[in-house]
Amino acid sequence: MNYILTLERRWNKPTYVIGNLYDNNGNLICNTLEDTDRMLDWHMTKETIKDIKIFGKTAIPTGTYEITYTYSPKFKCNMPLLNNVKGYVGVRIHPGNVPEDTEGCVLVGKNNVKGKVTQSRATFMKLNDIIKQHIKSGEKVFIIIKRRY
What is the number of alpha carbons within 13 Å of residue 89 lying toward its C-beta? Predict the structure, then answer.
Protein backbone atom coordinates (compact mmCIF):
# COMPACT_ATOMS: atom_id res chain seq x y z
CA MET A 1 0.00 0.00 0.00
CA ASN A 2 1.17 3.55 -0.68
CA TYR A 3 0.83 6.65 1.45
CA ILE A 4 -0.04 9.72 -0.63
CA LEU A 5 0.46 13.35 0.39
CA THR A 6 -1.18 16.02 -1.76
CA LEU A 7 0.19 19.54 -1.99
CA GLU A 8 -2.27 22.01 -3.49
CA ARG A 9 -0.64 25.28 -4.44
CA ARG A 10 -3.24 27.96 -3.68
CA TRP A 11 -1.76 31.46 -3.71
CA ASN A 12 1.00 32.24 -6.22
CA LYS A 13 2.81 35.53 -5.69
CA PRO A 14 5.88 37.06 -7.42
CA THR A 15 8.36 35.64 -4.87
CA TYR A 16 6.55 32.69 -3.28
CA VAL A 17 3.60 30.31 -3.41
CA ILE A 18 1.52 29.21 -0.41
CA GLY A 19 -0.15 25.82 -0.46
CA ASN A 20 -2.00 23.29 1.65
CA LEU A 21 -0.65 19.81 2.37
CA TYR A 22 -3.17 17.00 2.84
CA ASP A 23 -2.79 13.44 4.09
CA ASN A 24 -3.92 10.19 2.48
CA ASN A 25 -7.49 10.83 3.68
CA GLY A 26 -7.73 14.45 2.51
CA ASN A 27 -7.19 15.95 5.96
CA LEU A 28 -5.19 19.17 6.13
CA ILE A 29 -1.78 18.57 7.72
CA CYS A 30 -0.28 22.05 7.31
CA ASN A 31 0.46 24.92 4.98
CA THR A 32 3.47 25.03 2.67
CA LEU A 33 5.76 27.73 1.34
CA GLU A 34 7.74 27.37 -1.88
CA ASP A 35 9.48 29.63 -4.35
CA THR A 36 7.13 31.22 -6.88
CA ASP A 37 5.40 28.87 -9.32
CA ARG A 38 6.62 29.55 -12.87
CA MET A 39 4.12 26.98 -14.21
CA LEU A 40 6.62 24.15 -14.61
CA ASP A 41 5.04 20.75 -15.19
CA TRP A 42 6.51 17.23 -15.06
CA HIS A 43 5.48 16.72 -18.71
CA MET A 44 8.02 19.36 -19.82
CA THR A 45 11.46 18.34 -20.98
CA LYS A 46 14.40 18.88 -18.68
CA GLU A 47 15.71 21.45 -21.17
CA THR A 48 12.45 23.45 -21.13
CA ILE A 49 12.43 23.40 -17.33
CA LYS A 50 16.02 24.65 -17.21
CA ASP A 51 15.16 27.46 -19.67
CA ILE A 52 12.27 28.70 -17.48
CA LYS A 53 13.71 28.00 -14.03
CA ILE A 54 15.47 30.74 -12.09
CA PHE A 55 17.80 29.05 -9.61
CA GLY A 56 16.66 29.50 -6.01
CA LYS A 57 13.51 31.35 -7.08
CA THR A 58 11.35 28.71 -8.80
CA ALA A 59 9.07 26.04 -7.34
CA ILE A 60 9.54 22.51 -8.64
CA PRO A 61 7.33 21.20 -11.46
CA THR A 62 3.87 19.92 -10.60
CA GLY A 63 3.66 16.14 -10.67
CA THR A 64 4.02 13.05 -8.51
CA TYR A 65 7.25 12.29 -6.67
CA GLU A 66 8.30 9.39 -4.49
CA ILE A 67 9.62 10.50 -1.12
CA THR A 68 12.52 8.62 0.43
CA TYR A 69 14.15 9.22 3.77
CA THR A 70 17.86 9.99 3.35
CA TYR A 71 20.74 11.81 4.98
CA SER A 72 21.03 15.51 4.12
CA PRO A 73 24.61 16.80 4.17
CA LYS A 74 23.25 20.37 4.38
CA PHE A 75 21.05 19.72 7.43
CA LYS A 76 23.25 16.92 8.85
CA CYS A 77 20.33 14.58 9.56
CA ASN A 78 17.92 12.22 7.83
CA MET A 79 14.95 13.91 6.21
CA PRO A 80 12.42 13.48 3.37
CA LEU A 81 13.80 13.74 -0.18
CA LEU A 82 11.64 14.13 -3.32
CA ASN A 83 13.08 11.87 -6.00
CA ASN A 84 13.50 12.43 -9.74
CA VAL A 85 12.52 16.10 -9.88
CA LYS A 86 13.43 17.20 -13.42
CA GLY A 87 15.94 20.05 -13.45
CA TYR A 88 16.45 19.95 -9.66
CA VAL A 89 18.75 18.16 -7.22
CA GLY A 90 18.27 17.57 -3.50
CA VAL A 91 14.66 18.73 -3.16
CA ARG A 92 13.55 18.15 0.42
CA ILE A 93 10.72 18.90 2.79
CA HIS A 94 12.21 20.91 5.64
CA PRO A 95 11.63 23.71 8.15
CA GLY A 96 11.90 27.35 7.12
CA ASN A 97 9.85 30.50 7.35
CA VAL A 98 10.44 32.74 4.32
CA PRO A 99 11.06 32.24 0.58
CA GLU A 100 14.79 32.85 1.12
CA ASP A 101 14.89 29.63 3.20
CA THR A 102 14.18 27.46 0.15
CA GLU A 103 15.87 26.72 -3.17
CA GLY A 104 13.06 24.67 -4.66
CA CYS A 105 12.32 22.75 -1.46
CA VAL A 106 8.97 22.57 0.31
CA LEU A 107 8.78 24.42 3.63
CA VAL A 108 6.04 23.41 6.04
CA GLY A 109 4.28 25.33 8.81
CA LYS A 110 1.29 27.58 9.42
CA ASN A 111 0.54 30.46 7.05
CA ASN A 112 -0.67 33.02 9.56
CA VAL A 113 1.65 35.80 8.32
CA LYS A 114 1.48 36.98 4.70
CA GLY A 115 4.32 35.47 2.65
CA LYS A 116 5.61 33.28 5.48
CA VAL A 117 4.99 30.12 7.44
CA THR A 118 5.40 29.96 11.21
CA GLN A 119 5.67 27.01 13.62
CA SER A 120 7.84 25.37 10.97
CA ARG A 121 10.09 23.22 13.16
CA ALA A 122 7.19 21.71 15.11
CA THR A 123 5.21 21.14 11.92
CA PHE A 124 8.21 19.55 10.22
CA MET A 125 8.82 17.20 13.16
CA LYS A 126 5.19 16.04 13.04
CA LEU A 127 5.25 15.49 9.26
CA ASN A 128 8.71 13.92 9.38
CA ASP A 129 7.46 11.36 11.93
CA ILE A 130 4.47 10.52 9.70
CA ILE A 131 6.66 9.98 6.63
CA LYS A 132 9.28 8.02 8.56
CA GLN A 133 6.61 5.77 10.11
CA HIS A 134 5.12 4.86 6.73
CA ILE A 135 8.49 4.18 5.12
CA LYS A 136 9.62 2.06 8.08
CA SER A 137 6.42 -0.02 7.78
CA GLY A 138 7.37 -0.85 4.17
CA GLU A 139 5.03 1.55 2.41
CA LYS A 140 6.07 3.82 -0.41
CA VAL A 141 5.35 7.49 0.20
CA PHE A 142 4.45 9.85 -2.64
CA ILE A 143 3.63 13.54 -2.91
CA ILE A 144 1.34 14.86 -5.61
CA ILE A 145 1.90 18.55 -6.32
CA LYS A 146 -0.85 20.40 -8.17
CA ARG A 147 -2.25 23.88 -8.67
CA ARG A 148 -5.57 25.27 -7.44
CA TYR A 149 -5.48 28.74 -9.03
Answer: 2
Tell me how far apart the alpha carbons of residues 144 and 136 are, in angstroms, rounded to a whole number. Answer: 20
Query: How far apart (Å, rounded) are the C-alpha atoms in residues 34 and 108?
Result: 9
Q: Is 115 in contact with 107 (CB distance < 8 Å)?
A: no
pTM for the whole thing?
Answer: 0.95
Mean pLDDT of the chain: 96
Q: What is the pLDDT of residues 117-146, one digit of tens each?
A: 999 999 999 999 999 999 999 999 999 999
Q: From the CB of residue 84, how many other CB atoms can be counted at a distance below 10 Å?
A: 11
- Write down the pLDDT at residue 1: 86
Domain boundaries, the chain: 2-147
Residues 6+ apart with CB under 8 A from 145: 7, 9, 60, 61, 62, 63, 64, 65
